[in-house]
Prior knowledge:
Structural class: alpha+beta
Strand order of the largest sheet: 5-4-3-8-7-6
CATH architecture of the largest domain: 2-Layer Sandwich
CATH class of the largest domain: Alpha Beta
Radius of gyration: 20 Å
Amino acid sequence: MSIAEPEQKSDNIPTNLRLLLILEEIARIGVPVTPTDVNANVGLPKPTIHRLFATLEAEGFLQRELDGRSYTPGRRFRRLSINVLSSLRVRTARLAVLNALAEQIGETCNIAVPDRDAMIYLDRVETKWPLRIQLPTGTHVPFYCTASGKMYLSTLKKSHLLRYLGAAKLEARTPTTITDRDRLREEIARTRDRGYAEDAEEFMEGMIALAVPINDDQGRLLSTLSFHAPTQRLSLEDAQAHLTHLRAAAQELSRLVIEDV
Length: 261
């Protein structure tokens, strides 16, 4: 009886729904997974789940990890997620929050999402000051030397962070860019402890930034909320006075995502 149950469960899943259920389960788990991990809840025959994973990998929706067994979202899956977040109804509400925050702080505010090897600016509201730093929507920025990127790195499991630190090319973008792997690991640990990330002119000389997480309904980082400013107008120490506004806006954006779901 127990041997037949997985087959019986799979019989109830329409063929054209199976790939979507696999993608949904991968997104829910949120860490590298094997076909067996996913199948614990999907319940397809073993040959079927492996065949569907192979299809998703071949089409760019999944990519295999270095261990050769587990998978993470591929470029097409990540792009799909970004496009969903950018849908008109969700984006209208999100931009209202972002505009209100930019008015409070008086500086350019951004929402960024993690991609495979960089953060991507999803939304942006510019400061009204004539002196501004141009980083338009769609810009890719590194993890290791930006506030949004370091915020993302601080949410990784230790093993994944160490893998990133071991493989990443840490180029000096400015004189203050952290290129020593041990120092960067310590900075990521501080970011995790305090719940926000700093960019002390590490990405662009003359620019500082702060970032906080926007979490999903399971408390996982979905995207980051940040603002940046030229040091001629705002020091990093003075910028920290805006953390209360930044965190409140991030919580509101999290609620928007959860309620929309």
